Amino acid sequence: RSLQKVSDGLGHLIGVAGLDVPVNQFERLGPAWELGLMAYIFMATNNGFILFHPEFRPVNEAGEMQMFYNNQDIADVEVPADGTPTNGRPSYDLSLRSAMIQRVTGFVDMVKVKTFDDMSRGTKQKFRYFHAPLNSTAPFGVATETRPTPFSLGLALPWGSAGQWPPVAAYPTAPPFDSYSLHRENLAKLFSKRLINSTCDAAKPELYKTGLAEFEFCDFSSELLAEYGVNPLCALGSVLEMPLARQQAMGCSFEYLKRVMVDALSTREAYEWETNWNTIVPAQIGATLLFLWTGTGLARWQTPPTNDAQSVIDASFAAARRNGSRDSLYERTALLASSSDSSLTVLTAPSGDSVFARFKANTSVPIYLTSALRVESSVVGVVGAEINYDRLANYFVNATNSCVSGVGGGACVTCAQTNVRCYLLDDSGAVVVSESQADVGKTFDIVNCPAMQLMINRSLFVTRYDFQAVCLKKTPVDSSASTLFNPIRALMRLASWAFIEGFLLLADLTSSTLRVIKAGAQEFGMASSRSTAEDCHRVDASRPDSILKVYERVDAMIAETADLVAPHPDASLKVQEIRRRLMQPLCIGRTADDRDEEEACEYLCKRLPEQFGIGLVSDLLAGCPKFDEAQIDCTVKRTLLRREPRQPLPTSAMRLQCPLLGLCEACQPGANGSSEFNVYVRQVSGTNLMFVAVTGDPNCDCTGCPLAVTTEKLSGTRNISLQQRFRERPPW
Question: What PANTHER family does UniProt report for this protein, alphabetically (predicted)?
Answer without folding.
Answer: STOLID, ISOFORM H, VOLTAGE-DEPENDENT CALCIUM CHANNEL SUBUNIT ALPHA-2/DELTA-RELATED
